[in-house]
Write a structure and sequence with these properties.
By secondary structure, the chain is α+β, with helices and mostly antiparallel strands. The protein folds into three domains: about 1-165, Immunoglobulin-like (Sandwich), CATH 2.60.40; about 170-280, Orthogonal Bundle (Neutral Protease, domain 2), CATH 1.10.390; about 285-470, no CATH class. The protein contains 15 helices and 22 strands. It has helices at about 1-15, 55-60, 85-95, 205-220, 265-270, 275-280, 290-310, 315-325, 325-330, 340-360, 370-380, 390-400, 405-410, 420-430, 445-455, and strands at about 25-30, 35-45, 50-55, 65, 75-85, 100, 105-110, 115-120, 125-130, 135-140, 145, 150, 160-165, 170-175, 190-195, 230-235, 240-250, 255-260, 285, 385, 430-435, 435-440. The strands form six sheets. The chain has a seven-stranded mixed β-sheet with strand order 4-5-2-1-9-12-11. Helix 7 crosses helix 10 (about 340-360), helix 10 packs across helix 13 (about 405-410) and helix 12 (about 390-400) runs antiparallel to helix 13. It is globular, with a radius of gyration of 23 Å.
């Protein structure tokens, strides 16, 4: 399977080489050695002196023979060379978010090992070309351009993960952004899945299958996948479950998730972390006090995606919301700008429920929250972007033809207004009786409730079979 994945990588590279490639400001040629040391040669076009700076203090400790100070151009070109001890860095840091090694493979953000060029008036475009010995691979969330990986529009500091060394790499096809909408041409994107060493023999195929089916479930909600190119790096951990997940935007989209080294398929599909992180990959990073918005959206949408795939029941979704959303109810009296801790997740989820209701009501059932987020993504606001809350709300409203999102932001973010969940459940016709959810179709907003989890009647959900159902 690894050999097949590497063959796909070579085919993709050959196709890309046929395309004309604009000249970048810098190129970084990286040679990977067997012991996971990196030789980096920077060439930057400039008429001004350029310096090459480490993103963090720890990076500086492992960059050997790194240039110091500003380097003058020679014939319009600045060159810099250094060697980076990637293995030493990853073993010392030993953090899934900052850099981690398993076997002879490393998952680390680009800024862990690539120096940042300083001295340009604008953010430079950098093409990164990586040369690996036989049996080793390199992958990133950055887009492929020609024979390299292009960093444009953001700095090295904000770029997500890279996977380097001996690891299992798969290139999984995914529907391109918005390509499952009615009347759209079918196009494919690609999710690069990197598994660090340490997963059991029986576990690896189950994990790949889990990711494939999750791509399908996410794509059905977004009507296309969340990104046309993405890296997902999975780190084995010595327990039977799914652990910490992190999505990093910047130049491209990448995700890291800790997964039990011997986890079984049922535990994988009963877990929420992968679906949650992929939702983040379809939304821009919200600048300022936007954590509640990003985490609230992922917390709210995750069980809906799994229910529409047939992995949860509608009653299970309402049970989760009725029992968990009270953790976020109190923040509304202070205003969502004051959210912290669990309030970011569940206060944000309450807001998303009210936004979903408002969009459906204001559009007479024609649109829902999926059209808000999906529409913004189709218009170019995805996981690699950074944007203010107001601008994103306006993009959402433009996609739904309403003012639902901006109106709710004014009410609950820029101002403080209490929310009574008990009254909201009664309006929707949702009651918890003992430990069982009872749905009342005579409730005032029962019509909206029926569309929230499983979608409107004219857009029935598309189940994604579980492995034991195939």
């Amino acid at each position: 399977m690894l050999r097949h994945a590497l063959a796909l990588l070579l085919v993709g590279t050959t196709s890309a080489l046929a395309q004309p490639v604009p000249t970048p400001d810098c190129t970084a040629d990286v040679t990977v050695h067997d012991q996971l040391s990196l030789d980096v040669l920077y060439r930057c076009r400039s008429t001004q002196p350029i310096s090459f700076e480490p993103v963090g203090d720890r990076t500086a400790q492992y960059a050997r023979e790194a240039p110091s100070g500003r380097l003058d151009p020679v014939n319009g070109l600045v060159e810099a060379r250094y060697r980076f001890d990637l293995s030493g860095f990853a073993r010392a840091v030993n953090s899934p978010s900052e850099g981690i090694q398993r076997g002879k493979g490393v998952l680390a953000p680009l800024g862990a090992w690539l120096l940042e060029p300083h001295g340009y008036q604008k953010i430079p475009t950098i093409d990164i070309r990586v040369h690996t010995p036989e049996g080793m691979v390199f992958s990133s969330g950055l887009p492929r351009v020609g024979d390299g990986w292009r960093l444009a529009g953001t700095t090295v500091r904000f770029v997500g993960y890279t996977a380097i060394g001996k690891l299992e790499l798969h290139e999984l096809p995914s529907p391109a952004i918005g390509s499952l909408r009615a009347g759209e041409a079918k196009k494919e994107g690609i999710l690069r899945l990197a598994l660090l060493d340490g997963f059991g023999e029986a576990t690896r195929p189950a994990i790949v299958d889990w990711v494939k089916r999750t791509i399908e479930a996410e794509s059905n909600y977004w009507r296309g996948f969340t990104a046309d190119q993405m890296l997902v790096g999975l780190v084995p951990m010595p327990r039977n479950g799914v652990g910490y997940g992190r999505t990093q935007p910047g130049g491209g989209v990448s995700i890291m998730i800790e997964v039990g080294d011997s986890i079984d398929a049922r535990r994988l599909f009963n877990d929420w972390v992968m679906v949650h992180e992929l939702i983040h990959s379809g939304m821009p990073f919200i600048r300022g006090r936007g954590t509640w918005f990003m985490e609230g959206a992922a917390t709210y949408i995750e069980p809906i995606i799994r229910a529409r795939a047939g992995w949860k029941t509608e009653q299970e979704v309402w049970h989760e919301w009725v029992t968990q959303m009270p953790q976020g109810e109190g923040v509304f009296a202070r205003g969502l700008s004051q959210a912290s801790g669990r309030e970011n997740y569940w206060g944000g989820a309450i807001f998303m429920l009210m936004a979903d209701m408002a969009i459906r009501r204001d559009s007479n059932g024609a649109k829902g929250l999926e059209d808000c987020f999906g529409g913004a993504l189709w218009r170019g606001l995805g996981g690699a972007d950074r944007i203010g809350l107001d601008a994103y709300a306006q993009a959402c409203d433009a996609a739904t033809g309403t003012r639902s999102m901006t109106t709710l932001l004014d009410r609950y973010f820029y101002n403080a207004q209490p929310v009574a969940l008990a009254a909201l459940w009664k309006e929707l016709g949702v009651a918890l009786v003992g430990d069982r959810i009872v749905l009342d179709d005579s409730a005032p907003q029962a019509r909206l409730r029926k569309m929230i989890v499983m979608g409107p009647p004219d857009q029935p959900p598309k189940p994604v079979k579980l492995p034991w159902q195939s």
